[in-house]
């Protein structure tokens, strides 16, 4: 487990990289600052979407109910345990899919929060998702370590289901030793984080799917996704 000092240094690195890139754009482009501003918004995209809902309601209720759209990801183990496959919707950014030097494969699909009462927990006394994810990527050596690091100072923005595969735990043709630590799953809402080892489910099903809906019952109910399903169907 990384020390508090190491985690603070990682936060500083993320922020320094963020602003250094922006200053570099400004210096090169002189007065053309719109591109630098656009770069800033890209880094904050997931967090900003939830902050916009908190501070500026969507134009229509329908636009909120439409949700975030759909994407998907999958972890698949071959029946004879000879190999496994990890697929994400897109290999595009540090937040969507990443493989770390600690041999962790991490991906996410976004989940929606329909519970307006949880908005009160989105406060400045927190750290945005794009920084927390990078700190966890840099400092974690196991799935549970990643989850515990990421859970600190939860901003309640960019609420995702995160799946963390520990490549170090996989042994070809040795399904009897894969009892713990291969797959760890985390789900976040404002003021709520649930995470646990899901290796047993992966081994039983031979796959782990992720598609924009909470797996954990508490998150499903806290987000009021259950009410949306009853009212509008299983899109939610």
TrEMBL record:
One GO BP on record is: phospholipid catabolic process
- At the top level, the lineage of the source is Eukaryota
Q: Which Gene3D superfamilies match?
A: 3.60.60.30
One term of GO molecular function: phospholipase activity
What general EC class does the enzyme of this chain belong to?
A: hydrolase
* EC number, as in UniProt: 3.1.1.-
Keywords in alphabetical order = Glycoprotein, Hydrolase, Lipid degradation, Lipid metabolism, Signal
Which GO terms of the cellular component aspect does the record hold?
Answer: extracellular region
**Transmembrane parts of this sequence:** none
**Its biological purpose:** Putative phospholipase.
User: What is stated as this protein's family in its record?
Assistant: Belongs to the phospholipase B-like family.
**Protein name, as recorded:** Phospholipase B-like
Species for this entry: Oesophagostomum dentatum (Nodular worm)
